[in-house]
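USER: Please consider what follows.
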Amino acid sequence: MSMQSPPTKRQKREEYRNAHKDEGLAQLPKKRFYRQRAHANPCFSPVSPDLMDWAALYPAYIASSTETTPPIESSGTKPRPLNKDVTVADIGCGFGGLLVALGPKLPDELLIGMEIRLQVTEFVQDRIKALRNQNPETGLYQNIACLRANTMKFLPNFFRKAQLAKIFLCFPDPHFKARKHKARIVSPTLNSEYAFVMRPGGIVYTITDVEDLHRWMVQHFEEHPNFERVGKEEESEDGCVKTMMVETEEGRKVERNKGEKFAACYRRLEDPPWS
């Protein structure tokens, strides 16, 4: 009789993640079962923002038939509407530390984390599911969600013009080599897309521990006609900045290593009257 070989690391990860698909599970997931290489390139996106099914991510905010005009058609292909819009996006949300910290601090906003890595996305989704199950009476964490997306290619497919009030770009990949700078998450083209989906007065929050990348982001936002830098005094009083500095997993790693963090925030300007 042959001995059964022990499960491989991949099998253990799959078994663990499958066990966490239980909707009623309140145990927080463990990161080591959701590891994935940094670079992946999924192509999913809705064709347009009107066809994005937000209801699947925010079931507590699905609009009732009395809140929609015209009434919801259950047989149609159009997604079920929410009673409010998603207004905060954490682009490249990683393991969801900022999302989880900001959710209770921004109870009137819907926050979405957007992550390119499949297994990391699954970790955040399982984490949010567990937190919701731990807080059934308070309704905490119903306002945060995560999806897998390549925002560098498809950001305007998810959000309408002037929909977002806040965008977070926390510890993005620095892409050190000059030939890879085109892959950085801040560029003239991408900044125009951020400007498109942001409402006037909205804020883009950036933070990194790489000074060269910080200078790159500062340069490109300050050169863009739709943004102006937020003053240091206002920045220091912004609770979201304080949370961003300490609650992301990368930020905590920098803290442990006694590294330096570089933050900068940019306000979306009003469009000129002729635009």
